[in-house]
Design a protein that fits this description.
single chain, about 425 residues, alpha+beta, BirA Bifunctional Protein, domain 2, Rossmann fold, 2 domains, 8-stranded mixed β-sheet, 5-stranded mixed β-sheet, 16 helices, Histidine--tRNA ligase, ATP-binding
Length: about 425
């Protein structure tokens, strides 16, 4: 029987990995400019962490977690999201004593046993940020600005929409909940099976349901934004005002509540309408009560997570993106190959991407490979070139070529790459 991978956990093949690396490198660079440092938490945690952090009434805890008992009889879960592990690390390592305001980011795989479909997998990858320690609405605005800058300015994904809402806090959440329950009292029979259960556990989650019947009922239901207390209303007004100053376009979505119980006040999503049903690329919000619920002092926080698989689906195809870069050394004959390997080693040591044929292919076959590898330059070295102390250097973009002295080719190529970097920012 042929072995196959696990359903919903796709492989990332070499032809795709370069795109992922580009997105990851772009994101890391931007996050560092905004003052975020990387944190790496384990891929599995004690199950209790997610039950307490995410909430027992959520779909994630009830249906989707990969949970197992290890040999020491400890109940463990593959992480389904990144915020709870970050908060656990924040408390365990007393990070607040080192920095009163902590800004961290994470990048890695998450696991949920959902029904696999386009844009939704059982192993998926997230880039997330958490800013812990400030109630100020300016922090909300900066976090949203960071997300928008990443999606629109750095990754240049077109036609994105930012949706914004406020879902209140402990002061006004009871009022929001009571108004919704009263509205649903004689309408609950029209809810789906899951939402009928949510009525008693977490009624706000009804507003997040994608079932058509639930959506039609929710369309006329009281909205959280209508019942905000004075403090939450003022906070939300300031967030919107700052986003206006930063010229970040947004739409108020008064049904946006997010899927996790720990969210308070500001909630937001970035969606790509081109992706169909699974169109949310990123989302987040405030979690001002989470750290206290997990045994720490009352500490505010806000963050977001970006779904990398959906980002990749929103980017141009691999064949459409990126400038050609690097060098391919094409050789003819055993002696040329030996010298070519030495040239390639020196070019790599000098920081260039370098490739060559090690299988004694024909020159025509090597040139085909150079095109496939999308290199900018091709160095051709054969018996005639060796006798003359020359190499033939071909510019694959301009489709022209000329001779360069063998002893000068390394410095010549390094100089060409430096010019490309100055002109375009990339080789």
């Amino acid at each position: 029987m042929q072995l196959k991978g696990v359903r919903g956990a796709p492989d990332l093949l070499p032809q795709e990995s370069a795109r992922w690396q580009r997105v990851e490198a772009t994101t890391r660079s931007l996050l560092q400019r905004y003052g975020y440092a990387e944190i790496r938490t384990p891929v599995f945690e004690r199950t209790e962490l997610f039950v307490r952090g995410i909430g027992e009434g959520t779909d994630i805890v009830e249906k989707e977690m990969y949970t197992f008992t290890d040999q020491g009889e400890v109940n463990l879960t593959l992480r389904p999201e990144g915020t709870a592990p970050v908060v656990r690390a924040y408390l365990e390592h007393q990070m607040a004593t080192q920095f009163p305001f902590v800004k961290v980011y994470y990048l890695g795989p998450m696991f949920r046993r959902e029904r696999p479909q386009s844009g939704r997998y059982r192993q998926f990858h997230q880039i997330g940020v958490e800013a812990i320690g400030s109630h100020q609405p300016a922090v909300d605005a900066e976090v949203i600005d960071l997300l928008w800058a990443l999606m629109v300015e750095e990754l240049r994904i077109p036609d994105l929409q930012l949706r914004l809402n406020s879902i209140g806090d402990a002061a006004c959440r009871p009022t929001i909940r009571d108004r919704l329950l009263r509205y649903m009292a004689d309408r609950s029979s029209g809810l789906c099976h899951d939402c009928q259960g949510r009525l008693t556990r977490n009624p706000l989650r009804i507003m997040d349901c994608k079932q058509a019947g639930c959506q039609s009922l929710v369309a006329e239901a009281p909205k959280p934004i209508e019942s905000l207390c004075e403090a939450c209303a003022a906070h939300f007004a300031e967030v919107r005002s700052l986003l206006d100053i930063l010229k970040i376009p947004y739409t108020i979505d008064d049904r946006l509540v997010r899927g996790l119980e720990y969210y308070t006040k500001t909630a937001f999503e970035v969606i790509n309408p081109r992706l169909g049903a699974q169109n949310a690329l990123a989302g987040g919000g405030r979690f001002d009560g989470l750290i206290e619920a997990m045994g720490g002092p009352s500490t505010p926080g806000i963050g977001f997570a970006v779904g990398l698989e959906r980002v990749m689906a929103s980017l141009p195809s691999a064949s459409d993106e990126g400038a050609l870069h690097g060098v391919y050394v094409a050789t003819i004959g055993r002696e040329a190959q030996r010298i070519g390997m030495g040239l390639l080693q020196e070019l790599r040591r000098r920081g260039m991407r370098g490739l060559m044929d090690l299988e004694a292919r024909s020159l025509k076959g090597q040139m085909r490979q150079a095109n496939k590898e999308r290199v900018r330059y091709c160095v051709i070295l054969g018996e005639d070139e060796l006798r003359q102390g020359q190499v033939m250097l071909r510019d694959m973009v301009k489709a022209d070529q000329g001779s360069v002295a063998l002893e000068q080719i390394v410095e010549h190529l390094v100089g060409l790459e430096a010019v490309c970097e100055r002109e375009h920012g990339t080789p």
